[in-house]
TrEMBL record:
Pfam families: SCO4848. It comes from the Bacteria. It comes from Nocardioides acrostichi. The keyword Transmembrane applies. This is Uncharacterized protein. Keywords: Membrane, Transmembrane, Transmembrane helix.
Length: 74
């Protein structure tokens, strides 16, 4: 499959969306925890793991986007 610049820009958009939504979720999760919301420990751990994994995925998509946009083609 041949990737073009438009694919790179698509990955930029996906990356931006993921970072925005997961950071907002992390902020809300932190606020709930700081407010003393009564949840089991597993809830906080599971959601923290989800945030970390998805931000790592966003980093991978960003790397892929940069490589795709820098590629000059043949």
């Amino acid at each position: 499959m041949r990737l073009e610049r438009r694919h790179g820009w698509f990955f930029v958009g996906v990356t931006a969306w993921m970072v925005l939504t997961w950071l907002m979720f992390a902020k809300n999760l932190h606020a709930a925890h700081a407010a003393g919301e009564d949840r089991p420990s597993g809830y906080w751990i599971a959601h923290t793991v989800l945030i970390v994994v998805n931000l790592l995925l966003a980093g991978c998509f960003a790397w892929f986007a940069v490589r795709t946009l820098r590629h000059r083609g043949d």
